[in-house]
Backbone:
């Protein structure tokens, strides 16, 4: 199974919004509503930010939102804050009863 | 407070077997919908799902690693383990254990364990 495709980098100014895409196939992103997003700061473990395409775990700010259209999922961070600067990875369930992650996107807050 | 903690050798020789254990605390490892995962990340690269195990012992593995991976669980000691055989330098990575506990995603993670494959 191939990694899901994400842009290597994205940026936005403080207070602005940034959207990250995650493109797969009908066997993963397009076939299931089990897309999740993870935030990872340098040297730290990933943290779950979005699950089942658009749901937020308890404690995650509502500035983070997720959506999906066809084989592409998206994560939007609104009202960018300095602490949002991190790497972001998407993940999807795969029809082969496994999981696949995205290639990762480094978000820079200008 | 749920916590996961990886443990095991930080250095493994090529062709040998990498072994790691994840210890779970702060909840029930036997919750019906939970499953327990191993995920790895080479330095500066992305995440790779290795496999998962349910408390029943049922497993699923990444097809690309399936021939070399074994995941097992010891519910009485609240631990699950990873064995990866015939390792090469390409297996050098930070290895994370992660749980699907409250929601359908990897919602709890260990801090990660760096394993280097080198002679």
Residues:
């Amino acid at each position: 199974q191939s990694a899901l495709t994400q842009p290597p980098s994205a940026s936005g100014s403080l207070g602005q919004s940034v959207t990250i895409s995650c493109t797969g196939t009908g066997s993963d992103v397009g076939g299931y509503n089990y897309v999740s997003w993870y935030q990872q700061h340098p040297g730290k473990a990933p943290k779950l930010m979005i699950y089942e395409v658009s749901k937020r775990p308890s404690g995650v700010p509502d500035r983070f939102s997720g959506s999906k259209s066809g084989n592409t999922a998206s994560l939007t961070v609104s009202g960018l804050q300095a602490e949002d600067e991190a790497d972001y990875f998407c993940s999807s369930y795969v029809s082969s009863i496994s999981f696949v992650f995205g290639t990762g996107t480094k978000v820079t807050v200008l | 407070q749920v916590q996961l903690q990886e443990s095991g050798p930080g250095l493994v020789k090529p062709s040998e077997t990498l072994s790691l254990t994840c210890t779970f605390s702060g909840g029930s490892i036997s919750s019906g919908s939970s499953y327990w995962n191993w995920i790895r990340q080479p330095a500066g690269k992305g995440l790779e799902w290795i496999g998962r195990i349910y408390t029943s012992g049922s497993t699923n593995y990444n097809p690309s690693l399936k021939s070399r991976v074994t995941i097992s669980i010891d519910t009485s000691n609240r631990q699950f383990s990873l064995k990866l055989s015939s390792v090469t330098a390409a297996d050098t990575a930070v290895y994370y254990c992660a749980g699907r506990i409250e929601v359908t995603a990897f919602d709890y993670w260990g801090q990660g364990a760096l394993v280097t494959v080198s002679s």
Observations:
- The CA atoms of residues 26 and 55 of chain A lie 21 Å apart.
- The beta strands of chain A are 9-12, 18-23, 35-40, 47-50, 64-69, 72-77, 86-94, 98-101, 105-109.
- The longest strand of chain A covers residues 86-94.
